[in-house]
Amino acid sequence: MAEPARTSSVLHEDDPSLDPLAIERAYRRERARRRAKIDKRTEVRRSNVRFWVSLLVLAFFAAFLILAAWHEVQTLFGV
């Protein structure tokens, strides 16, 4: 007949601790991890916005330069 598996008394990292300070530290660590995740997500969104805004500004600047050059070419050749 098979015997039930023996359980070791070694505590794993995921096992809850009975120490109130350890519980509070675990809560703080999880809150900090969650806050870091939210901060990273926010920073990624902001960097995406910065990228698209800078790309838009560069596109307008390039269009302005092209139009200015076109005007100069027309003026130069009298078209």
Give me some keywords for this one.
73% helix, rod-shaped, 79 residues, mainly alpha
Query: Distance between termini?
Result: 102 Å
**Low-pLDDT stretches:** none
Q: Structural class, judged by helices and strands? A: mainly alpha
| Average pLDDT score | 88
Q: Largest beta sheet, briefly?
A: none
Radius of gyration: 31 Å
Binned, the helix content reads over 70%
Q: Which shape, going by the Cα principal axes?
A: rod-shaped
| Residues in β-strands, percent | under 5%
Number of contiguous helices: 1
SSE pattern, N- to C-terminal: H
Number of strands: 0
Number of domains: 1
Description:
By secondary structure, the chain is mainly α. The protein has one domain (19-79). The protein is 73% helix and 0% strand. The chain contains one helix and no strands.
Short précis:
The protein is mainly α and 79 residues long. It is built from one helix and no strands.
Question: What is the topological layout?
Answer:
Elements: H1 20-77
